[in-house]
Write a structure and sequence with these properties.
Blueprint (H helix, E strand, L loop, with lengths): L2 H13 L12 H20 L1 H5 L8 H26 L5 H9 L17 H18 L8 H29 L3 H20 L11 H6 L7 H19 L9 E3 L4 E3 L5 H11 L3 H14 L1 H24 L1
Antiparallel strand pairs: 1-2
Helix pairs in contact: 2-4, 4-7, 6-7, 6-8, 6-10
The structure holds Phenylacetyl coenzyme A.
Amino acid sequence: MNADALQQKFDAQIDNETSIEPRDWMPDDYRKTLVRQISQHAHSEIVGMLPEGNWITRAPTLRRKAVLLAKVQDEAGHGLYLYSAAETLGITRDQMYDQLHSGKAKYSSIFNYPTLTWADMGAIGWLVDGAAIMNQVPLCRTSFGPYARAMVRVCKEESFHQRQGFEIMLTLSKGTAVQKKMAQDALNRWWWPALMMFGPTDDHSPHTARSIRWRIKRFTNDELRQKFIDVTVEQAKVLGLTVPDPDLKWNEARGHYDFGPINWQEFYEVIAGNGPCNKERLDARRKAWERGQWVRDAALAYAQKRQARQAAKKEAA
Ligand code: FAQ
């Protein structure tokens, strides 16, 4: 097939909602966009283990510890599915790690904020996983098959994560005055960064229009942010907590909540590497990579030994 015919076939697949699979022809920019988004998504899952990992040894009860441990472990699994999905596009895992460790690849801005109290575990599950679900449920229908399939399982697990966070917030907000204050303080600190997770406003988002055309993204950043606000404000009412936005107001005509200005300067500072914990997060990942060298060496040596043994057996047979 010539280039035009290949392009036409690809366009028809997109228009007919037939998923694009790794061996299908695809435009270079489509491949690059997916490698960028999927690898950054994978990095977010892996770096995202750090803020909560910080609380595993300090969880208030054995039940909370077991649940948090399972959640953090799930995030590792999500990272691995996503790295595998990205690998089908021709990039290697080592290349992706290198991009993360060298600071070239981004990961979600949200994971550059510190987790100061136990209530932050509640706020992360409720708000951060809640925002992740809002963004990822539409990705179950993204046009690239391996990414869409990975998202189905990820979303099921995220839904458990969101509920465990909400349950922590509910327990604290129905607890003592000090516990309720702790929950409110966590909401105050995580609310605005959670809204930033959806990315820049549509008029400042260089990738959205094309990603929507290719059906990689099904909704724009602003559409998803608005959906999240509409759902989450109602949940805050159930908790009896106050969303830290004096401009928040139901707009009958729009059928949505109006909300106050987001501090985009803060967002751009964080994604440029200057957030409160960027350095700490990257240092932790780099250190883990260096300290894991012996494990990778041992696994490789074992695989080579096994391969040699099997080859010798075959030869003898
Ligand atoms: N943080 O033109 P757009 C989770 C970058 S998973 C950092 O709008 P796009 C689970 C963007 O990459 C959370 N950078 O870009 C969990 C681009 O930079 P580039 C992660 C951001 O791709 C919970 C530039 O700004 N989820 O939380 C952010 O069309 C708890 C221009 O932006 C995903 O990755 C940001 N918030 O839309 C784990 C979902 N926003 O690449 C542990 C998949 C934007 O040109 C614990 N990704 N940027 O250098 C997406 O849906 C999209 O990539 C967006 C951005 C919506 C994030």
